[in-house]
Amino acid sequence: MDMQNIIDRFITYVNIDTQSDPDNPQFPSTEKQWDLANILVKELEDIGMQEVTIDDNAYVMATLPSNVNHKVPTIGFLAHFDTSPDYTGENVKAQIHKNYNGEDIVLNKNENIVLSPDYFDDLLLYKGQTLITTDGTTLLGADDKAGIAEIMTAMEYLVQHPDIKHGRIRVGFTPDEEVGKGAHKFDVEKFGAEWAYTMDGSQVGELEYENFNAAGAKVTINGKIVHPGYAKNKMINSMLIGAEFIKALPENEIPQETEGYEGFFHLHGMKGEVEKTVLDYIIRDHDMDLFEKRKKQFQDIGDNINKKLGSDLVQIEITDQYYNMREKVVPVMHIVDIAEEAMKELGIKPLIKAIRGGTDGSQLSYKGLPCPNIFAGGHNFHGRYEYVPVESMQKAIDVIIKIAQLTAKRYT
Predict the structure, then answer these.
(1) Who has the most CB within 10 Å: 99, 100, 111, 374?
(2) How far is CA 106 from CA 103, 117, 383, in A?
(3) Is the CATH number of domain 213-322 3.30.70.360?
(4) Can you point out the beta strands (E) in 81-160?
(5) Comparing C-alpha atoms, which of 33, 76, 351 is closest to residue 189?
(6) What's the mean per-residue pLDDT of the chain?
(7) Annotated active-site positions, please?
């Protein structure tokens, strides 16, 4: 398979700004997501896919027909085309580093931005490989444009190599995953697959069917502004109340202090003045009982502050976002087994672990489409230090093709 074709396809995608917007109720949340969605439609048609569609919500779907005579379950592969709202994806300038030598990579000499294995030790896994980075001023968008490039390339390869036997395959590309809405309007019945895989993981070998239960929480604190020289017993500084709220949460239950199955409270946005302060949190836990306790603990802190102040100055909104897909995947564990077998046959060591986050697959699993997650190869998502090894993308393509083969073989 032509490595340059993979690189060119991926860079074409990352050059298109598709950053989503958590504060816009529009669907998709940004008009610019349509730019890539429409390109993907044409590309699917050009490579020979059938039943190519794009709906009013920018969901792109297509079919690779079965080329075997026996009945095989329809499977799917999914990836999202929006990028994180946490860091700009505009004017991405991809840089290609061939035969990486294991040393620091200077992303931007003028701004002294360096991608270093001293801090990101995963880089050392990829000595001798070709890495794609940015110039340090934007994210890259491997989350999840690497997944799109892998699915597209795998489908193109299967179209061009009909000797590789497979059942009916559906592919789907979705908007707004990064703002938690990627599966909200996804038509599972129209997609018509018995199960699917999101190509949205990180390191080579990752295979995941457990994820966080997730909620978003907004704390709005109302204060009162008066002249500071005459503020005695009159001013209410909402920012100080906000600081009290933050301090009341467990200080070690935050992303940078947790791992594995440990949950957390994550303050990811804060805006304040004397009269009004808003704190934006995400609440995560793999265990449903602990998840519910976390949400109650969060609400109780606000209630206790209000009780102490004698006024409902603290308002809390908690909205569930998605749940742990384990409950929906375990009853059909053969779909994980097929992916694991595919990796092993390709000489890839499966890394079966829980996702410390979520994918479209978590919501889709609850909508009737069991959907484990497979590596797409990128690292350091959502920031300037994001990178993806081209060889990892190649391996993900190989896994997609092998899953298609094994599924057809299993149902012979």
Answers:
(1) 374
(2) 10, 12, 15
(3) yes
(4) 95-97, 105-108, 113-115, 131-133
(5) 76
(6) 96
(7) 82, 177
